[in-house]
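Input record, target 12 of the design panel.
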């Protein structure tokens, strides 16, 4: 087998174009080159409160978005995390090898725990261990994610090495694939902050399924600067973020874009960007509508995906249990 790719998203809300550019969009190109596993991380999502009915809907939604973005069940294994119990099982073994100190340094945990002090559950703390289990279970070589997952990926590497050193070679040590311009799309209202669907200001993010009017409104209101010169640099963070979106959707370089809009007002650039985003996302929106209305097909994809994933997951977990010293039944 060639190289293995694994990635996942949580079904914890509607996706933003940050999620799309940082992760999903890169999946399609990978499925033609590698053995790919793409997963709906429902176990991860309950680290924050979820309404059961909504969670079910969002799980199906994410599956439909995977398919709408061009992922094909014949090429990629598409499945739901809770359908393969080995994720939770390996997570337990790895958690017994994880240091509290290292988990305590996870910046996402620190941020999330500040936000939800009344719901500081143990799952939120051990969440990166579950993510390591996801990755290591499939002997993954490559993990396409956004910048915010870098530290979690580092933990997965550490755990793989720690286990290999202690019990002999068992896990592949994975590497990340993180986009230079798209690894961290920033908030439209505050370019110091990551674009996030949980932001209370709805104008700070564009949802994958937003229509053109909504995209227009949000881009129009997006923060740039009062300098007025069209450049791509770190002093003009708001503009740089918009240019990064333009780069991602057009395939043009920052130099080409700067040359094109150098003598224009920001508003001209913004109008073109709206059109570019809306046109690029339209096929995805149309495909999504078709897939989400065919529940029988979604269920078939999920079931076949889970069967295939289980095969690989069982193989790895068996090895792990044996090395740790658990008796076979
Ligand atoms: P999540 O919604 O937290 O499950 O994130 C799913 C994927 O989207 C992960 O690979 C994240 O790193 C990525 N992601 C989330 N927000 C952004 C963003 N603003 N820019 C780029 N990638 C992002
Ligand atoms: N923790 C990731 C996020 O919130 C989602 C995720 C779970 C993931 N398991 C993974 C990403 C394994 C990559 C590989 O975005």
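The sequence produced for target 12 reads:
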């Amino acid at each position: 087998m060639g190289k293995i790719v694994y990635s996942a998203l949580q079904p914890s809300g509607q996706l933003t174009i940050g999620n799309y550019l940082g992760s999903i969009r890169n999946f399609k190109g990978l499925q033609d080159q590698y053995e790919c596993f793409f997963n709906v991380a429902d176990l991860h999502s309950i680290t924050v409160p979820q309404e059961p009915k909504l969670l079910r809907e969002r799980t199906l939604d994410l599956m439909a978005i995977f398919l709408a973005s061009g992922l094909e069940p014949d090429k990629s294994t598409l499945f739901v995390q809770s359908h393969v119990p080995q994720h939770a099982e390996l997570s337990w073994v790895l958690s017994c090898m994880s240091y509290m100190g290292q988990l305590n340094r996870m910046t996402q945990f620190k941020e999330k725990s500040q936000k939800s002090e009344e719901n500081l559950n143990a799952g939120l703390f051990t969440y990166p261990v579950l993510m390591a289990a996801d990755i290591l279970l499939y002997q993954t070589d490559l993990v396409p994610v956004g910048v915010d997952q870098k530290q979690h990926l580092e933990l997965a590497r550490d755990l793989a090495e720690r286990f290999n050193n202690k019990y002999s070679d068992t896990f592949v040590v994975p590497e990340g694939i993180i986009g230079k311009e798209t690894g961290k799309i920033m908030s439209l209202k505050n370019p110091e902050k990551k674009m996030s669907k949980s932001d209370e200001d709805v104008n700070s993010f564009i949802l994958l399924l937003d229509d053109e009017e909504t995209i227009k409104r949000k881009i129009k209101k997006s923060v740039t600067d009062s300098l007025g010169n069209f450049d791509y640099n770190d002093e003009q963070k708001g503009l740089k973020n918009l240019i990064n979106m333009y780069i991602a959707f057009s395939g043009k370089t920052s130099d080409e874009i700067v040359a094109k809009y150098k003598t224009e007002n920001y508003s001209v650039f913004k109008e073109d960007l709206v059109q570019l985003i809306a046109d690029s996302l339209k096929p995805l929106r149309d495909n999504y509508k078709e897939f989400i209305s065919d529940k029988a097909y979604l269920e078939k994809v999920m079931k076949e995906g889970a069967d295939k994933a289980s095969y690989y997951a069982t193989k790895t977990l068996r090895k792990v249990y044996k090395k740790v010293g658990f008796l076979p039944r």
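The CA atoms of residues 113 and 120 lie 6 Å apart.
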